[in-house]
Specification:
By secondary structure, the chain is of the alpha+beta class. It contains 31 helices and 28 strands.
Length: about 900
Amino acid sequence: MEEKPQKEWHSISSSDTLNALGAKETGLTADEAAKRLEKFGKNELATEEKSSLLSILASQFANVLIIVLIVSATISLILGKQVESISIFVIVVLAAILGTLQEYQAGKALEALRKMASPSATVLRNGQTIEVPSSELVPGDIAIITYGNKVPADIRLIESNNLQVEEAALTGESLPVEKFTQAIEGDSIPLGDRKNLLFMGTSVSNGRGKGVVVGTGANTEFGKIATMLQNTKTEQTPLQKNLDKLGSNIGIIAIVIALVLSAFSYFINGGTILDAFIWAVALAVAIIPEALPAVVTIGLALGVQRMVKRRALIRKLPAVETLGAVNVVCTDKTGTLTKDEMTIRKVYADATTFDVDGSGYSPEGNIILNGHKVKHGAANPCLIKVLTYGVLCSDAELKLTDEGWDILGDPTEGAIVTTAQKAKIDTEAIKKENPRVDEIPFTSDKKYMATAHSTSGGRMVVLKGAFEVVMGKCSMVEAPNGAQPLTTEVESSINSTVAGFAANALRVIAVAYKMIDEQEQLTDDALTNMILAGFVAMIDPPREEVKPAIATCKKAGIRTIMITGDHKATAFAIAKELKIAHDESQVFSGSDVEKMSQSELDIAVNKASVFARIAPEHKLRIVESLMKQGNIAAMTGDGVNDAPALKKANIGVAMGITGTDVSKEAADMILTDDNFVTIVAAVEEGRTIFENIKKFLIFLLSGNAGTVFAIILAFVFGLALPLTPVQILFINFIMDGLIAIAISLEPSEGGIMHRKPRTVSEGIITRMGLLRIMSLGMAIALVTFAVYYASVTIFELQPLQAQTLFFLTLIFARLFNSLNNRSLNTSAFKSRLLGNIPLVISSIVGIAIVWATTKIGVLQTAFGNVDISINGWLVAIGAGSLVLLFGEVFKLISKDKI
């Protein structure tokens, strides 16, 4: 059989398709079907290999920090320090479990896609109608499709009887698509316009049909999406990259310092190997911020909870922080930027254009003429007629729900009914007074609907549909004194009005009527010499809150790009109204993208504000181009076709209301209200979270640096090791962990959306940040070592007393350091002490635990602490408070912001 590129099946006749596939309308023989199954394989979508839980757990131990801690724990065990060894191993296990749980989020998008496939199919084999598993369908099979079926493969229709298919999941088209069998000329035809093809995974909503299978498995449109999903690799987030790099650097520093100090201890100071190992373990444990993985995870999780309150559901934890770096948002139009509610803005009747206010499907609103509301009872009779007849030729109904007004039926008809009620027309009454006796249903190829009604004046036909089609069937136009001839001059004036509406992306629906004999049948041929009653112009309007949100994005240095399946004119009109685009040169179509080389697309995405009539592969190319050029891109989507782009984007954003399961599984974030404003709120929250991560990182690392510097000073001055590994672990993991989590809850300092996004190359610790870490670390070291040195050499305290006093001073120095880091650039004295209640509570809890370690016997033994007098506590508090003053001086003299 001849193999033909799949995208061309729509362009040849059904008979040529059968010939190309070596098929007949009576179906394949069983033997031929078996041969083809052998050749083409099963009609199944790709599966995704998942890493096992065990392999993910094992990978956690490849981390440099974890390795250093394991070595330290092992050395402690060999040295007989069981408490220290067990403590370190507990930290290692907790870190590994946290990392495993965070990573074990297997991609379920492919599984969701597979669930959309039909389990069985009806085909002709050997001239007989049989049911087979859909996995056994092959190219050339003749499939029979009927109402309620899921389409089991990609099919070229050879028969169609009132066949309508729901393709929203694949193409984004919200209304059922009318299908036919004729060939469609052209190669680059969007999927939604290939109306002689059925696509795997879509659903038949009306009628029946028969067709030849032209694509199975990976060669279907769903299959292509599955392949794209499988081949689309997610990249590490900026935070993950930063933390991995930071962890490696800290691990290397820990190894180097521990080895150098151990060597000095053994070779220079003449200490034993045991002494060298004790110093090495203490330093390694002191350098590593053991609480960091837990604090980052908990901080991000708390950020997730805050985002839920702002209607953003985060599926993948690192996405919380990545949102703060987003500098491009690629957004759908319908339902995200717009209300997804058709709204009539203009009514044309009696050569007059009336404006309509109000929003959505609420009947609250007014008809306006020349800036004045048209009063009930004084409305133009021609206006009343066009709306009344529009209602008669509609099936939609308005309903009041708990969420507000909504419609049952077609959105276009719902807009007409809504406007009629704004004009105080009793829509239910006029339907009862003028009962429908016949109708011609709307079809996408005819572009009109017609109804016949029994009225007090006889039988009346009403025609409603696309303006150009209805106008072509009219010879008269409605006027206050009755119908008037549709002269060339009148027609030219009407066409000019319609052109003006179209230029503003308004969709025009015309209404016409005529009286017929009671016995006359309603047929397509009878729809001639109609009287044009008038027309309405409607649009899916932008959400009121979106325009200011886009303005906020601009202030924050974030580009907004509209990506839609709509036509260029409609897309540009909405984009212009929302201030996304100001010139048509910023608008590109799917066919434009199709023709572009990669370098041309790279140039286009930097210029574009709107992409219209876009196919799924275009969306993926666009986001790849943006990311390749160093952008952090957020991409919205709701259909199956959006899944690859959602998975590839730095932040994939799915719609919670209209989104498919496939899109939700591929996304990092789900908008529970499908609203663009929620994306902006999430970006703001992401920026705040990143700022707080910087704050607690500087807090943790400066505290660790202080401990390390103090230990080194003790070594240099020939003093005993001032801390045990258990004490260090308590400070690093428990005390600092609680405080760091509290810092992650700091509220935004304000003005955060007036800054430019951080660049991809910007590390989480900047040059100024590193300087601050080292400076604060040195301050902590100096005050704690000074107390330790004085307690040993001047006051000649017992070793355990001196060690306990050092422990207390270090605790308070790091607590005061937390106040330094509530704001990176503003004085701590300008931050309200009770502005962060969790920080106050964490500090009190931490101090209470420390007090217990100096008072309770079993804890004294475990920590190596002894009871300290009130004077000792006051010395520790006073010395520790000096770190706060040093932090203030640093902020005053540093010119660059962190």
